[in-house]
Amino acid sequence: MDRLARIEKTLEDAVARGAADGSPPKITEAIRHALFSGGARVRPQLGLAVAEACGDPDPRASAGMAAAIEMLHCASLVHDDLPCFDDADERRGRISVHKAFGEPLAVLAGDALIVMAFETVARGGVASPQRIGGMITSLSRAVGLPHGIVAGQAWESEPDADVSVYHAQKTGALFVGATVGCAIAAGSDPGPWRPLGEKLGAAYQVADDLADAMGGVDDLGKPCGQDEKNGRPTIVAELGLQGAVRKLEMMVRAAADAVPDCNGADELRALVMMQAKRLAPQQAAAKISAA
Amino acid sequence: MDRLARIEKTLEDAVARGAADGSPPKITEAIRHALFSGGARVRPQLGLAVAEACGDPDPRASAGMAAAIEMLHCASLVHDDLPCFDDADERRGRISVHKAFGEPLAVLAGDALIVMAFETVARGGVASPQRIGGMITSLSRAVGLPHGIVAGQAWESEPDADVSVYHAQKTGALFVGATVGCAIAAGSDPGPWRPLGEKLGAAYQVADDLADAMGGVDDLGKPCGQDEKNGRPTIVAELGLQGAVRKLEMMVRAAADAVPDCNGADELRALVMMQAKRLAPQQAAAKISAA
Q1: B88 near B102, Cβ under 8 Å?
Q2: Are B51 and B36 in contact (CB under 8 A)?
Q3: Interface pTM (ipTM) of the complex?
Q4: Torsion angle (degrees, nearest 10) of CA A270, A275, A281, A287
Q5: Average pLDDT in the A64-84 region?
Q6: Distance of CA A90 to the CA centre of its chain
Q7: Given this model, what pLDDT does residue A210 score?
Q8: DSSP 8-state code for residue A260
Q9: What is the pLDDT of residues B103-155, one digit of tens each?
């Protein structure tokens, strides 16, 4: 089974288990809306590619870890879209969860996805129980305090936020969770895999800011111009458009260079370059190709 | 250290770790407000009493599990109080989290507490790594789909809800998580500990409904009459006041009888009777004492 198919199957199995045995039906509809909405599965595919580069001795463990990362990504989008944050009516070109199902089910769907993520790691790790603790810890670091997604979002409620810290937490942390967590799932030392997650997450954030500012297709499916509208700190606001494009080029290359030596290193480097190009707005992508 | 001190220390340590190293400060204030607000710690004390009855061979594991149960309880209260649910201005006689810190930080504090709960189990289980998977699974079952707290809350968005299913999920599930999860933390077979959690959770829900209907002091610190105001299904609405008091008596006795045979069984049965009486409104408590 290819990476994407493994991810989709693991997500489908987890949602089906949650929907079983007399579960209230609407929340599962809301979860499905959030989870199966045409997302590119960038983070879990990265995670599985890392696990494969490490030999992937327990594919259930790595698939569980990768799927958990995607669940948390989708949970963060559902809560970010709530009226008290972005108040977004759309996501990925479709109606947002709170607009479609109401605010109570949007809050609960996000909560349920967070819980489901941890449950999926525990279930996936059943044949490698000694690795579950490390995987859970890498997942909670990616999402919680002091430096995960929730911390990043909480900076929006503070009077002063360092733009690079904000981005590292809101976007980079989950990329680190994917590389570190899937290295642990594969029984490898996670330390050497952290820089790849950090650098790719940083590059991805710049690509997303550029898409937002240039009016291209935003990979997250938000209406463009949201960052400016919400007065949010962005790399484009800090460096200007050209500066941000140059920064993206450097960052993609740095991410590819951060792949540690291992059997699958060359393939993984190629994947990083390809993914990063796919995410960049066309003008930026052309520059990266020519560089 | 007594049970309560172990719980408070584990909670304090987890919050301090989340607040370290440049974390955004306001969300930690919101978490502290939610977590240290005079709650009776009923569920984690029950969990530690179960672990002790099982010999408690790894006190860090049981303390982590018990503290995680309390974090999830508090997370559910913070999200339940949000404007889109109960829109409660007060909780335990103090201003609610969203009233004090705003809705964004209330959503995020709840999210952070859910994540912190799983992280705390993984950290507590570091000397018993083979038990972490079971503890994580018991925690996610208590909170997630299909039968945990989130499922219970999601029934409020469905046209038809079975009142006993609703209560079992909104209240009972976390009591089961406490008994089952702490039995696992102590290396015991969790199966025999499930009925105690179920029966005590059910008794506790009746006590809470009675307090709400009789205008006594609600253990959760909600303004009384909330259930009627919110048109919520309650045992009192179903059975009447006297019927609910009789049901509470039966349930407390059934919970005490459900303590499985073990070294600490007698002490645990006495604790169950004492806790349940403490929770009941005075009129009901007098009946239970006389019975």
Answers
A1: no
A2: no
A3: 0.92
A4: -10
A5: 98
A6: 19
A7: 85
A8: P
A9: 999 999 999 999 999 999 999 999 999 999 999 999 999 999 999 999 999 99
Contacts of B172 (CB under 8 A, 6+ apart): B197, B198, B201, B202, B204, B205
Contact B115 A17 (CB under 8 A): no
Of A25, A122, A165, the CB nearest to B133: A122
- Beta pairing class for A90-91 and A94-95: antiparallel
Burial class (CB in 10 A: 0-12, 13-18, 19+), B233: middle
- Shortest CA distance from B105: residue in chain A: A154
Measuring CA to CA, which residue among A65, A75, A74, A73 is closest to residue A119?
A65
Q: Report H helices in chain B.
A: 3-19, 25-35, 42-53, 59-80, 97-101, 103-124, 129-143, 149-154, 163-167, 173-185, 194-214, 226-229, 235-257, 265-279, 282-290
Nearest alpha-carbon partner for A112 in B81, B149, B162: B149
Identify any residues that bridge with A90 across adjacent strands, giving them in sequence order: A95
pLDDT at position B215 is: 66
* Length of chain B (residues): 291
Which of B104, B129, B144 lies nearest to residue A115, judging by beta carbons?
B144
Q: pLDDT of A26-47, one tens digit each?
A: 999 999 999 999 888 999 999 9
A154-173 burial, b if ≥16 CB within 10 A, otherwise e? Answer: bbbbeeebebebbbbbbbbb
Q: What are residue B109's phi and psi, to 5 degrees?
A: -65, -40
Q: Determine the Cα–Cα distance for residues A56 and A58; give it in Å rounded to an integer.
A: 6
Q: Any CB–CB contact under 8 A between A116 and chain B?
A: yes
- Phi/psi of residue B262, each to 5°? -165, 175
For chain A, domains (ranges, CATH) are: 3-290 (1.10.600.10)
* Range 134-173 of B in CB contact (< 8 A) with A: 136-137, 139-141, 143-148, 150-151, 153-158, 161, 165
Encoded tokens for A176:
């680190």
At A46 the pLDDT is: 94
- Structure token digits, residue B84: 């889109």
* Partners of residue B95 on adjacent β-strands: B90
Q: Is the peptide bond before B146 cis (omega within 30 degrees of 0)?
A: yes
Using the Cα atoms of residue B110, residue B116, residue B120 and residue B121 in order, give the sign of their dihedral: positive
DSSP-assigned letter for residue A222:
P
What does DSSP assign to residue A36?
A: S
Tell if the CB–CB gap between A136 and B136 is shorter than 8 Å: yes
CB contact set of A243 (below 8 Å; sequence gap of 6+): none
Q: Cβ–Cβ of B115/A23 closer than 8 Å? A: no
Q: Are B115 and A173 in contact (CB under 8 A)?
A: no
Report the candidate in B176, B125, B28 with the shortest Cα–Cα distance to residue A137. Answer: B125
Q: Which of A190, A173, A70 is nearest to A135 (CA)?
A: A190
- Taking the C-alpha atoms of residue A225 and residue A207, their distance in angstroms, rounded to an integer, is 14
